[in-house]
Amino acid sequence: MSAKGKDNTNTADVRDDRVVTNSLGNPLNEPYATQRIGQHGPLLLQDYNLLDNLAHFNRERVPERNPHAHGSGAFGYFEVTDDITDICGSAMFDTIGKRTRCLTRFSTVGGEKGSADTVRDPRGFATKFYTEEGNLDWVYNNTPIFFIRDPSKFPTFIHTQKRNPQTNMKDANMFWDFLTTPENQVAVHQVMILFSDRGTPASYRTMNGYSGHTYKWSNKKGDWHYVQVHILSDQGIKNLTIEEATRIAGENPDYCQQDLFTSIEKGKFPSWTVYIQTMTEEQAQKFPFSVFDLTKIWPHKDYPLRRVGKLVLNENPKNFFAQVEQAAFAPSNTVPYQEASADPVLQSRLFAYADAHRYRIGPNYAQLPVNCPYASKFFNPVIRDGPMNIDGNFGSEPNYYATNTNYQFIQQDRPIQEHQEVWHGPAIPYHWKTDAGDIDFVQATDLYRKVLSKQEGAQERQAHNIGIHAAAASPEIQERVIQMFTRVDKELGDNVRKVINAKNAEENAKL
Ligand code: HEM
Question: GO biological process: what's one of them (predicted)?
Answer without folding.
Answer: response to hydrogen peroxide
